[in-house]
Every structure is written in structure tokens, then in C-alpha cells.
Amino acid sequence: MRGVVAAVAVSLTLVAPATAEPPPTGDHVPLTVNPLACPSIPPSHDPNVIRIVYQVGLDRNVSPKVMLAAFEAGWVESRMNNLPCGDKDSLGVFQQRPSQGWGTPEQIMDVAYASTQFFVQAQRNEPLYPNYTAGLLAQSVQRSCCPERYDQAEGRARSMMAEAAGMISPRAFTGSSTDFDGDGRDDIVTFTHGPLDDVYVALSSGSGFTGTTVKWHDRFALSGETPLTGDFNGDGRDDIVTFTHGSLADVYVALSTGSSFGPGGKWHDFFSLNGEVPAVGDVNGDGRDDIITFTRDNLADVYVALSTGTSFGASQKWHDFFGIAGEYPGVADVNGDGRDDIVVFTRGNLGDVYVALSTGSGFGASAKWHDWFSVGGELPRIGDFNGDGKADIATFTTNAAADVYVALSNGSAFVGTEQKWNDFFALAGEFPYTGDFNGDGRDDVVTFTHNSLADVYTALSTGTGFGGGAKWHDFFGLAGETSF
Known about the structure:
By secondary structure, this protein is α+β, with helices and mostly antiparallel strands. It has two domains: 120 residues; 315 residues, 6 Propeller (Neuraminidase), CATH 2.120.10. The chain starts with a helix and ends with a strand. The N terminus is likely disordered. Pfam families: FG-GAP_3. Keywords: Signal.
């Protein structure tokens, strides 16, 4: 199946026109224009579809315009339903056509895959046409017969976006260890979600990631769940965890054997509700990673459930005001005392970074550790980039410049604003992460292109900068998957 994905994805050549003129009209007919192309079309949207589309957009860090374009397109094309019929050979929520290179019918009917394909093209087109409305941007992707329909759907699209935002838990992937075989080098993992829910791993050799179809689990982290990694039983090998959110809010763990992940077991039955952001870290310093959740509501509470090695204990409030809505939280040992602390990036126009240190039984008072870092929509990450035992912060601009900046921890603050550690790494739409991939004690950076090529690039830390990006894998982490 994964080989088929490669063959089809490479043929996708939906490149935006070079001029700034309005996007051309095509021969594609949306279902709301010709409803007879399907036996029946639901009168309203599918809540599960809008949740997945919104989650994929968040994961790809799309702009508000691109997100709006997706919801306008989804409403016009299918009323935001995953339909097995349409004009000509069109299928799915965005009515994508296998004959036009969008993927196989099975892929297009996977909402996460279809959403990713829309977002990839929309993110390519957005900087080419900065004056386009969201509707024109949607038309530049869809090439329909009726370009005016997308902007006309703005009100409905915004309503669905608001509904979707209340249904999901925003993901804040700032960094966690991924050494699954315990050899001292971080590896990479991808969660397919969708109908298969497989988990693949490629181990680090110190100079590349090996393996393409090495399946370590065949049913873990369903669509809409939040997967993370950490060493939950303290055996030196990182495991996987998934948070279901929803009404159940269960937490499942699959332990690493060094060559696969064992059966998933429920380690907590009520943790990290809808709208909360889960994280992983060893907050009490006992060598086992625990779970943390940030409520990110008007209370901004932070709860912790400590690992016993076989389960997570009762949820306890460790902070009563940290990480409000819209901020980007993370967990790491920033003062080098062996206990992971909590960090939050305000981003936006302020660019502040706050820290609350762990006491082993709670998080202390919040303190500002940096006053201008990871601004706007940049992607913040955390890692020990100079190998001194204290976690530092990095930010990826993920724009045309693709710069990477780092501020090092001195144990009581993050120092430096304009310390550029790489001047071309992690382009728009890519997913950057951190880890010690060559085992030298310094965290490096990795980026997953998550496009038709599915390349993985790594830039190793020298202690004062990141070296040039090098391809460490040529097919890993497909569109719609979650990869670390």
C-alpha cells in the first residue's frame, strides 16, 4: 500500500500559475452545483469530517486564510461530507479526482489524506497570490466551473471552523525523546491514523534513518487522537502514548521491546479532555516519563499524572494558571536539575516565553525567561542543543527564509534573540522536530516534508549552530500522518 502511495503522489503536478491573475475556471463541477452527481447529499456537514480537516490544518500550521479556504471548498464541494461519488470521478470531502493525480480512490476517501493534499497545494499558492481572498485561493486549488461559490460560503465556513475548534485538542509538539531501541540515538516514528492506524519506525544509524516499511504497531492512535512518545516504564527505551480526548478521555500506552511496540494498554481512564493540550515529561525526576495536560481555558490549569511504570496515577493539579488559550506549551528540563519543567510560548505580537520550574510535586511560580522569541506563527521547539544538560528553545520561521533561531538556557533564562543557527531549514508546510540523532549528547533538528516525496532532512548540532540539512530518509511520514 505504501509503495502505491509513492507512485501516485509523485504524479501530482497541480502547480499554481505564475501570474497574479484570478485563477482559471475549470471543468470540475461541485456537488452543490450539480447535486444529481450523487444519489444523495446530506443537508449539513459531518462533525467528524470538519474535526479532521481542522486538525490537519493545525498540524500543518496553515494560515487563517488557508484554513478558511479549505472550509469554503469543503462546503461547496460536498457540504463537508466524505462522499463516495461526485462529478466525473470526483470523490471525498474535496471532490478530488484520481485521474488528475490526487491519489488513489482509497487515499482520497481518507479525510486526513485528502485534507493534507488540499493544504499542501493551498500553502504553495498562498505566497504566489497574496491578494487572493480565501475563496480565490480555494479556486486556485479546485479549478471548478464556479469560482464565485467559494467566497459566497464564507459565513458557513467560519461557523464550521468555530464548531471544529471546540471539538478538538490543539497539538503542541515541542519535542520529546524518540530512542525506541535504547541505543542512545533518537529515531523517527510516524502514525498513519486513518483506516489502518499503523505505526512505523525508522531507526537512526547515526548518519541516516534506516527502514521504510518497518511496522512497529498495527493499531494505535486513531484519527483525532494525539500521539506522543516517552519512556514510561524507565527501561531506557522510548514508548508511545495516545490521548483519545472526547467523552472518554482515555490514555493508552504501548511499550517498546526494542524492535516493536507491544499491545496497547489503558494507563489512564480520564485525562486530557477536548480542547486540552497533552504533553509528556519526567516531572518528578524518577526516570519515568509522566503525562501533563494544559486546559488552556479561562482557568489555565495544568494537571499531571505520574507514571508508576505500569500505569499513570491519579490526576493532580500542579499549576493553577499557566498556558492560556492560543499559547503554545511544552515540557523540558530547562534548569538541569533532572526534573522536567513547563514552558509556554505566547507567540503572536508579544513573543514572550514563560517557565514554571518543577519542585517534584508541583510547578512553581511562572516567570518570564524571554521577551521576544517565536513570534507570529513561527513553530517553537525545545531541546538541549549545546549539550550542557539544560534544555534550550528553538524557533522555525517556516517561511521563504526558512530560518532557525535558538536561545540557550543559562538555568534561569533563555539568552539571545538573533542567534540564527540555520538559514534554510524546514520550509512552509513541513514539520520540524528535535532529537539527538547521532548520539553525541546535543539535540539536532529534523524536518518531515510530508509532501509527495516524503523526505526527511536532518541538521546536526555543533553546539553553536546546526550544520547543513542532509537527507536522512527518502520516504517516511506521508501526507496526513503524524511524524516525530
